[in-house]
Structures are given as structure tokens and as C-alpha cells.
Amino acid sequence: MNPDESQIVAFLERYGAALSNGDLPEIAASWAVPSLVLSDEGAIAVTDPAQVTSFFGQAVAWYRSNGIVATEPALELAEALSERLTAVEVRWAQIDAAGAELGSELSAYILHRGDDGQLRIRVALTRPEPQ
Description:
Layout: H1 5-21, H2 24-29, E1 31-39, E2 42-46, H3 49-65, E3 70-80, E4 85-95, E5 101-113, E6 119-128
Parallel strand pairs: 1-6
Antiparallel strand pairs: 1-2, 3-4, 4-5, 5-6
């Protein structure tokens, strides 16, 4: 059964809180294995949760060094692709310590509902938001 919008939003809010708090185990638990990260530079196959932990450990440090202390999701689109797969587009606001938005990025995900009923990211594509 496909998730409804409230389930998707709840997943994104948990994931955003984990990103904001630098909670690497929770971030890794939000990813299906295997999964795929796509960019203009190519594709990265994620075959181990440790890859997610390593990448996001570096990403959290980069965000902090640029004054970003939190991120907040806004669901832009959700479309069921199959019984277990849902395509979503999310705008992630980048928030500083004073609560001001410093910028944002757009992410497209294919979420997979596992046998345990939990949503996880199966495919990810992140890009800067058009100006």
C-alpha cells in the first residue's frame, strides 16, 4: 500500500530532524540498501549504511561551517509509482542559528516502503534550487 501524504511528511520531518541534529544512525536508517545517488557527475551505488554515515558526517560538518544549523522539508510533489515506490520532490530550507533561511535545495527521491512498513530513500537526486 502506498503511503499517504501525512506518512511522507512525517518521514521527511524525521529525516530533516536527523540531518539538523547530525544524528548519523538515524540518517543511515532512513536509506534503503542498496540505493542510488544520482548527480550530473554520475551515480553512486550505496551498498552499506556506513557509506551513508560517512557522507553525511562530512555534509553535516560542511553545513555547520557555512552557518547552517537546521533544515526544514516542504513536500512539493508525491506520486505513487507502484505499490511500494513513491516519487517525491522536496524543498529543503537551510536555516541559520537565528532562524533565518540562508538558502535551499531541491531533492527528488524515490521512497521505498520496506517489509517492515517503513519508508526509506531508494534513489536520491539533489540539486540547487533555481534562482
